[in-house]
Amino acid sequence: MKKLLSVFCAVLALSACSTLSESSLFGGSECESKMARDFMENAEDRVFFAFDSSAISLDAAEVLNTQVKWLKKHEEIKVVVQGYCDERGTREYNLALGERRANAVKQYLVSKGIAADRISIISYGKERPAVLGSNEAAWAQNRRAVTVVTGD
User: Fold this and answer.
1) Interaxial angle between packed helices 34-42 and 58-73, expressed in degrees from 0 to 180 and rounded to the nearest 10
2) 130 by DSSP, 3-state: which?
3) Nearest 5°: phi and psi at 116?
4) Kind and range of the H or E element at 151?
5) Cβ(146)–Cβ(22) under 8 Å?
6) Considering just the CA atoms, what is the radius of gyration of the chain in Å?
7) How far from chain centre, in Å, is Cα 9?
8) Strand partners, 151
9) Of 74, 109, 133, 134, which residue is least crowded by CB atoms under 10 Å?
């Protein structure tokens, strides 16, 4: 009976978390904070890049504008921009490229009036692919920057 009850409690606790972010899968809290959920509901969290590029495209700018709008409403919130690459290239090269991508997002947000001290960056290079595979479809999804709310 105790085993059944503990399994039920575990399932109940896990079901309370309706969504998990990339950061929560890699050591963050299991349940996203209220502000992180609000960000995910009201702004798009990721932008994609062309091969070997950190340039912000028109599509990326549209996404980032949703982030700007949300961040201006929540001036107390800080974010981290995570830069990623596809599997091609050396580890060192991709860490540098991921950093350039994250920094490009940060600079865009700052250019639209978000305080630089609210935004930190980190590069994961090719170490945390969103999509597994060695083809253009997978690579395109892995060339990204993801903005994550770090706390209320």
Assistant:
1) 140
2) coil
3) -60, -30
4) strand 144-151
5) yes
6) 17
7) 30
8) 78
9) 134
Structure tokens at 67: 């982030």
Contact 47, 56 (CB under 8 A): yes
Report phi then psi at 23, rounded to 5: -65, -35
Do 79 and 73 form a contact (C-beta atoms < 8 A)?
no
61 phi and psi angles, rounded to 5 deg: -60, -40
What pLDDT does 124 receive? 98
Q: What angle do CA 69, 43, 85 make, to 5 degrees?
A: 115
Q: What six digits make up the tokens of 16?
A: 């309370």
Cβ contacts of 136 within 8 Å, gap of 6 or more: none
Sign of CA dihedral 8, 12, 15, 21: negative
**Cβ neighbours of residue 58 under 8 Å, at least 6 residues apart?**
none
